[in-house]
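Encode chain A's predicted structure.
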Amino acid sequence: MDAPSTLQPAQVAIALVGQAVSKHHTRYDKTFFKAVLAGVMLSFGGLLDFIITGGSPSLSAANPGLVKVL
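Encoded structure for chain A:
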């Protein structure tokens, strides 16, 4: 019989504390760079949403299901 793939609550708490400590010791420039990249990705996602839903009527007319998904 295989071992279960889930962790016990105590093991989850230990793993979370370990991740928090490792993120706390991350350099500030690395954290800033990740924050900038996250902002860029969110901006491109918003731009894509704007183009699909309202900025391109021909695209939404050709594929109405795409607008409903977003």
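Residues 28-55 form the longest helix (28 residues).
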